[in-house]
């Protein structure tokens, strides 16, 4: 299910965050896209155009080079692009675009664009908070321009606060959302992901091999499909998704409580986490020690709540999706689990395939039939699951 590559026009305005855009070009090309870079005069003071030329494999456009030839680069470049991203976008460039000014290559490209525009602001916290800037940002959004970030944190100027450009990896993750069909527009999705951890004592616990990759991929796929996404995360071995509200909950009980707080406000619940069936009933407040008697300590177990079943049995339950990772008789167990938990859709896979790996092969089991998907990367699997959820919701509605 490989996705067609896109052509991205990357505008770089003046700001120290321009160094992050070098990595962004590399990541976008790694995703298979081609990238043309257009730089403002101020941007070239931070990173030399030659750096972007080498990374993009194409000549870099500047005010000077755009004026050469037929002088129509400011028109043609966005005609050739699927999307125009300005990262970093300075307060000055954003203000000009918000007002339709066109006095250099970047702003002229924005004014004359024939493709979607996204901007990743980067500026000092006080510049970001300035009412004039916030007015401009609101205007850009009202004009249909996507604004990525900015994030909060320490800034190059030494101050701390909102205004940091998103990291290259986050922008490379969010950009493809622009051309993803909005199958879940207006929906609120709640997911669990990762492994739970049941404490035995302050340093030891019972956990499992789930990496959280499938849950994170599904959260990304739901966000890309236009949903508002809340993720309740156990232990993750991968970065949490960008643009998603994340609550951390390590034990099954904490995960249950966090989910139940959110469940009524969501349209779709997807339980991807590998939740421990049992917790330690006699958890020790002190680290357990060998006492020299040769008798190992006894660990007593108590059953954990079944989060998926609890959500599915709520009076006004959201559309619920469960996962069944089994070692044997995968489909039989998954079919029985769908009925037992009372959910409309179960995603079945074998533990050997699924746990910790980057790809998997799943079968979608619903009341209307079963579909075995080919083995593919977890994000592709996630996109296919989202398509199936949208299809089933369409049937239900
Ligand atoms: O019962 P089993 O663990 O095999 O079911 C797997 C499905 O149920 C997954 O979707 C998992 O996230 C969910 N689950 C849950 N709470 C539990 C156990 C499993 O939500 N305590």
TrEMBL record:
<dbReference type="InterPro" id="IPR005252">
    <property type="entry name" value="CoaBC"/>
</dbReference>
<comment type="similarity">
    <text>In the N-terminal section; belongs to the HFCD (homo-oligomeric flavin containing Cys decarboxylase) superfamily.</text>
</comment>
<keyword id="KW-0479">Metal-binding</keyword>
<comment type="function">
    <text>Catalyzes two steps in the biosynthesis of coenzyme A. In the first step cysteine is conjugated to 4'-phosphopantothenate to form 4-phosphopantothenoylcysteine, in the latter compound is decarboxylated to form 4'-phosphopantotheine.</text>
</comment>
<keyword id="KW-0460">Magnesium</keyword>
<feature type="binding site">
    <location>
        <position position="337"/>
    </location>
    <ligand>
        <name>CTP</name>
    </ligand>
</feature>
<keyword id="KW-0285">Flavoprotein</keyword>
<comment type="pathway">
    <text>Cofactor biosynthesis; coenzyme A biosynthesis; CoA from (R)-pantothenate: step 3/5.</text>
</comment>
<dbReference type="GO" id="GO:0015941">
    <property type="term" value="P:pantothenate catabolic process"/>
</dbReference>
<dbReference type="Pfam" id="PF04127">
    <property type="entry name" value="DFP"/>
</dbReference>
<comment type="similarity">
    <text>In the C-terminal section; belongs to the PPC synthetase family.</text>
</comment>
<feature type="domain" description="DNA/pantothenate metabolism flavoprotein C-terminal">
    <location>
        <begin position="184"/>
        <end position="391"/>
    </location>
</feature>
<keyword id="KW-0288">FMN</keyword>
<dbReference type="InterPro" id="IPR003382">
    <property type="entry name" value="Flavoprotein"/>
</dbReference>
<feature type="binding site">
    <location>
        <position position="277"/>
    </location>
    <ligand>
        <name>CTP</name>
    </ligand>
</feature>
<feature type="active site" description="Proton donor">
    <location>
        <position position="157"/>
    </location>
</feature>
<dbReference type="GO" id="GO:0046872">
    <property type="term" value="F:metal ion binding"/>
</dbReference>
<dbReference type="InterPro" id="IPR036551">
    <property type="entry name" value="Flavin_trans-like"/>
</dbReference>
<feature type="binding site">
    <location>
        <position position="287"/>
    </location>
    <ligand>
        <name>CTP</name>
    </ligand>
</feature>
<feature type="region of interest" description="Phosphopantothenate--cysteine ligase">
    <location>
        <begin position="189"/>
        <end position="397"/>
    </location>
</feature>
<feature type="binding site">
    <location>
        <position position="323"/>
    </location>
    <ligand>
        <name>CTP</name>
    </ligand>
</feature>
<comment type="pathway">
    <text>Cofactor biosynthesis; coenzyme A biosynthesis; CoA from (R)-pantothenate: step 2/5.</text>
</comment>
<keyword id="KW-0210">Decarboxylase</keyword>
<dbReference type="GO" id="GO:0015937">
    <property type="term" value="P:coenzyme A biosynthetic process"/>
</dbReference>
<dbReference type="GO" id="GO:0004633">
    <property type="term" value="F:phosphopantothenoylcysteine decarboxylase activity"/>
</dbReference>
<feature type="domain" description="Flavoprotein">
    <location>
        <begin position="6"/>
        <end position="172"/>
    </location>
</feature>
<feature type="binding site">
    <location>
        <position position="341"/>
    </location>
    <ligand>
        <name>CTP</name>
    </ligand>
</feature>
<dbReference type="GO" id="GO:0010181">
    <property type="term" value="F:FMN binding"/>
</dbReference>
<dbReference type="GO" id="GO:0071513">
    <property type="term" value="C:phosphopantothenoylcysteine decarboxylase complex"/>
</dbReference>
<feature type="region of interest" description="Phosphopantothenoylcysteine decarboxylase">
    <location>
        <begin position="1"/>
        <end position="188"/>
    </location>
</feature>
<feature type="binding site">
    <location>
        <begin position="305"/>
        <end position="308"/>
    </location>
    <ligand>
        <name>CTP</name>
    </ligand>
</feature>
<keyword id="KW-0511">Multifunctional enzyme</keyword>
<comment type="function">
    <text>Catalyzes two sequential steps in the biosynthesis of coenzyme A. In the first step cysteine is conjugated to 4'-phosphopantothenate to form 4-phosphopantothenoylcysteine. In the second step the latter compound is decarboxylated to form 4'-phosphopantotheine.</text>
</comment>
<dbReference type="InterPro" id="IPR035929">
    <property type="entry name" value="CoaB-like_sf"/>
</dbReference>
<dbReference type="GO" id="GO:0004632">
    <property type="term" value="F:phosphopantothenate--cysteine ligase activity"/>
</dbReference>
<dbReference type="Pfam" id="PF02441">
    <property type="entry name" value="Flavoprotein"/>
</dbReference>
<dbReference type="InterPro" id="IPR007085">
    <property type="entry name" value="DNA/pantothenate-metab_flavo_C"/>
</dbReference>
<keyword id="KW-0456">Lyase</keyword>
<protein>
    <recommendedName>
        <fullName>Coenzyme A biosynthesis bifunctional protein CoaBC</fullName>
        <ecNumber>4.1.1.36</ecNumber>
        <ecNumber>6.3.2.5</ecNumber>
    </recommendedName>
</protein>
<keyword id="KW-0436">Ligase</keyword>
